[in-house]
Amino acid sequence: MSPHHRRLRWHTQWPTILWLTVVWVLLWGDVSVGNVLAGLLIGFLVTNGLRMAPIDFHGRLRPLGIVRLFARFAVDLVKASFEVSLIALRPGYQTRGAVIGVQLRSHSDLYLTMTAELASLVPGSLVVEAHRLTGKLYLHVLDVRQSGGIEAARQSVLDQEERVLRAFASDEELAAAGLGVHR
């Protein structure tokens, strides 16, 4: 790796190092000089010491889309938590779980990862495999009946992907995914 390339990589890693520092401080729950310095050191070691494939971001931040994404995620989180707790508390209820495949519209590793993480964070569903070459997610759904059926569960993931794309994708990426650009 050339010195210029190393220097360029170092400059592009600062946002990641700072984000990892924030996460470190939040995990410890204490904003102190020692925690911030430890977070910076760990962030530096993670970004420069581990071999990670670069993820290119060609999109743009859309504030209204980001608000919609996180607001709907919060609603889904509360609703699903309530539904899963009802399943757990209902005596003798037999769930009908299923593993479903969902073909995503975007071919970006970043959007696939974001969609998979958000889908897994909602109780009642868990990504069991993500095929990056085909852009397909395989999810275990706790109770297909409660999800409204297989197609409704699949559509829920596609809706989540659309919210991710509308929050972060460029106009070109939205068009390639078959989604119109909302201004």
Descriptive notes:
The structure is a single chain. It is built from 6 helices and 3 strands, in the order αααβαββαα. With 183 residues, it is mainly α. It has 2 domains: 47 residues, no CATH class; 114 residues, no CATH class. α4 crosses α5.
Distance between the termini: 42 Å
Number of continuous helical runs = 6
Radius of gyration: 19 Å
- The tally of domains stands at 2
Output the structural class.
mainly alpha
Q: pLDDT average, as an integer?
A: 88
The SSE order reads HHHEHEEHH
Question: Number of DSSP strands?
Answer: 3
The percent range for helix content is 55-70%
- How are the strands of the biggest sheet laid out side by side? 1-3-2
Q: How much beta, percentage-wise?
A: 5-15%
Low-confidence stretches: none
Any descriptors?
single chain, 2 domains, mainly alpha, 3-stranded antiparallel beta sheet
SSE arrangement:
Layout: H1 3-28, H2 33-49, H3 63-89, E1 98-103, H4 109-121, E2 125-131, E3 136-141, H5 150-168, H6 171-176
Helix pairs in contact: 1-2, 3-5, 4-5
Brief characterization of the structure:
The protein is mainly alpha-helical. 59% of the residues lie in helices and 10% in strands. It has a three-stranded antiparallel β-sheet with strand order 1-3-2, with helices on one face.
